[in-house]
Amino acid sequence: MEYLFDAPPEFGETMEVAPGVHWLRMPLPMALDHINLWLIEDGPGWTLIDTGISSGLSKKMWSQVIEEHLGGRPINRIIVTHFHPDHVGMAGWLVAKTGAEFCMPRTEWLYARVLTIDTSEKFTDGMVEYYRRAGGSAEYLARLKERGPFFPGIVSDVPRGIQRIVDGESLDIGGQSWKIVVGNGHSPEHACLLCDALDLFISGDLILPKISPHIGVYADEPEANPLKDYLNTLAKFETLPGNVTVLPSHNEPFRGLHERREWLIQHHLDRLEDFVTACASPTNAIDIARQVFKRKLDSSQLGFAAAETVAHLNYLITEERIVRHADEDGVNLYQAC
Ligand SMILES: [Zn+2]
Q1: 144 burial type by CB count under 10 A (0-12 exposed, 13-18 middle, 19+ buried)
Q2: What radius of gyration, in Å, describes the C-alpha atoms of the chain?
Q3: Cα(121) to centroid(ligand 1), Å
Q4: What is the pLDDT of residues 190-244, one digit of tens each?
Q5: For residue 297, how far is its CA from the centre of ligand 1 (angstroms)?
Q6: End-to-end CA distance of the chain
Q7: pLDDT, tens only, 251-260
Q8: Where are the domains positioned within the chain?
Q9: Å from CA of 205 to ligand 1 middle
Q10: Which residues are placed with Cβ below 5 angstroms of ligand 1, an ion?
Q11: Fold of the CATH domain 2-119+149-266
């Protein structure tokens, strides 16, 4: 893998990475402290890919970017790759401010809408029950219950309608053809964008250079097998041109798509063996997560780690490598066959 730039742009500043394609970095209030957004010159205006998390700081930075870095040209179109808050968070605010057309894959938009609207106690109870079955301590569950739904706090009002984008179709952006390439596993219908003429691949969170994209199972679909979806997507991406510059949502642009793709496949295959080893005797998902991730997981990391663990365990159940049964309290225990 080869990195193409010595340093990323400062937060709220832009850097041209290919003719008419500009890299904008926005801060995130978490361990992964930034997200990359892409501004593409598009006729008299701009097309923006992804928007950042909703926060006072994001609003301040976006106001500044619109005033100082866009040459007085309007954002006419916003494309959001998937429903996660760091991608869709500022979309509603930006659409209200700019009147831009709003494009998103249908399932991703539906998730974003549902998760910002449902602030009911039942929603929180479902989440708490999911982590109880995963082996969460009473203290951890009480904290989840108290926190409640976190999505509405970091995602501004999601637009009521979309221009749907679909796998395989092409969009004209700035006179170039950009093909929508949908992948699954990290989220239900994640859109990437490929421009053959510019040799660019906007990979969102599906291919990242330094971290492995999060693959998790959550309360909304506890029997899901997103790791299978993700491995299928990595296999499908074999047909993408290998010489593209990958523009990922986190860390830096790079060349070496297929080296990275193969590394990610091998990483998960190795991880699966670690999970089988951790299931030598009947164990719940959170205790398995602690064994496999081999570091102290604070309460903010524990939910992601448990979700990632269940994704691997569900995959192994489908492969008949492990079995699951519930103990007398309904906590799921996993054991290697
Ligand atoms: Zn994501």
Answers
A1: buried
A2: 20
A3: 25
A4: 999 999 999 999 999 999 999 999 999 999 999 999 999 999 999 999 999 999 9
A5: 20
A6: 38
A7: 999 999 999 9
A8: 2-119+149-266
A9: 5
A10: 84, 205
A11: Metallo-beta-lactamase; Chain A (3.60.15)
